[in-house]
Amino acid sequence: MAKTIIDAHNVSKTFNPKTVPVHAVQNVHLHIEEGEFIALVGPSGSGKSTLLNMMGGLDEPTAGTVFIDGVEITKLSENKLIDFRLHNIGFVFQSFNLIPVLTAKENVGFVLQLQHMSKKEREKRVLNLLKEVGLEDKINSKPGELSGGQQQRVAVARALASKPKIILADEPTANLDSKAAANLLDIMAKLNKEEKITFLFSTHDQRVIKKARRVITLVDGKIDSDVEQSPT
Question: The whole model's pTM is what?
Answer without folding.
Answer: 0.91
